[in-house]
Amino acid sequence: QRGRSVRAPPMEAAAGGGPAEAAGPEALSCFSYNQDCTSLAIGTKTAYRLFSLSSVEQLDQVHENNEIPDVYIVERLFSSSLVVVVSHAKPRQMNVYHFKKGTEICNYSYSSNILSIRLNRQRLIVCLEESIYIHNIKDMKLLKTILDTPPNTTGLCALSINHSNSYLAYPGSSTIGEIVLYDGHNLRTVCTIPAHDGPLAAITFNSTGSKLASASEKGTVIRVFSIPDGQKLYEFRRGMKRYVNISSLVFSMDSQFLCASSNTETVHIFKLEHTTDSRPEEPPTWSGYMGKMFMAATNYLPAQVSDMMNQDRAFATVRLNFSGQRNICTLSTIQKLPRLLVTTSDGHLYIYNLDPQDGGECVLIKKHRLLGSGKTENKENDLRPPLPQSYAATVARQSTVPSSSSMPGYSEDGGALRGEVIPEHEFATGPVCLDDENEFPPIILCRGGDPGKVKRS
């Protein structure tokens, strides 16, 4: 699910996910946000680390492991202690750990290199180049193997974080932008969505699994579809001048915004709203008249031309001070305010304020180092230029006490939404447990062989 993770696959570089650029001995080999964007995981040549994203001013390291070198996939299950790791030393083996206890829960080996892993509270997805394995996360049993998928060298796939539907999306072709929508709960194909003319570069679900966004390798147009029927809802134009490699595509948790970053210096944030439906009646002015005439004229233009005219452009943007560097972005609420986070392969985390009413240029308010001493970089003259007394100026004044209780999503209680009671039948009846802390999900201690030999269908 591009937008939440970037990794360097074994042996070869993938578009937007190849080996990290040289940035010292500890350049990041992989980096990913967890499912609700409250945690950041990074991997280097020597270790992997987990950080909490509950505060703007402080970047708290939750865990560091120096025993597994050359990690290229690290995925944490919400804010629980379950973490999945794959290293270059054993690129066909998935290891699942309880990092607080320092114990291995299980491991599985596959027939070829693991390219990506996706998690929610119900399913664990392992994507290889030409097959996908679906595990029941409560006991790690293999439920389904999707064989003979089109060549997928980057391991592109997306899993809804909503465990009540567990929709899975993956490329249906290596030559055109076709998306296969699969029901990970009932283990059946739902539909195929003809999303783009060219091959896919990015796909991602919103938090409820009711929308799916996609971009092709050209990177010029981003489309949003309703799920499960696959109808097109929105079409955004990221740019027309040049093709780009989309490295990150992600919805905000409330599904109001969609963020895209690439190998260029601009991050685009789109607002998901149908302005034509809610726009009040305009006064009879000359400009209003001409606007209506223009919109009416699009009905007579060729479809390709009128579609381009009707595409919405970015609601807000960020101008990075670099380009050509791998990065991932996410939209999150931190200390009660909307933020844009950008993590880069040279080991930095940038935090911006997003104005949800007026959009425009986002304001950089903090820069953290993820490597070395882990100290925060915050040069007042660089990060906080004089601003008028606007929304952006107001939110730039940070509260001194992080309001962790206001964070949306999942917490250290093991992954239950605050206020949500997990039904008893959703817990495995078998042995184990992520433990006595009642973390979700329960997992039995096991040692897995080649799951392909367990069940193929």
From TrEMBL:
Membrane disposition: Peripheral membrane protein
Compartments reported by the entry: Preautophagosomal structure membrane
Any single GO BP term: response to stress
Protein origin, superkingdom: Eukaryota
Region described as Disordered: spans on this chain: 1-20, 395-417
Ranges annotated as biased composition (Polar residues): 396-408
Key words of the record: Autophagy, Lipid-binding, Membrane, Repeat, WD repeat
InterPro entries (alphabetical): PROPPIN, WD40/YVTN_repeat-like_dom_sf, WD40_repeat_dom_sf, WD40_rpt
Family in the record: Belongs to the WD repeat PROPPIN family.
Protein known as: WD repeat domain, phosphoinositide interacting 1
Naturally occurring in which organism (per UniProt): Chelydra serpentina
Gene: WIPI1
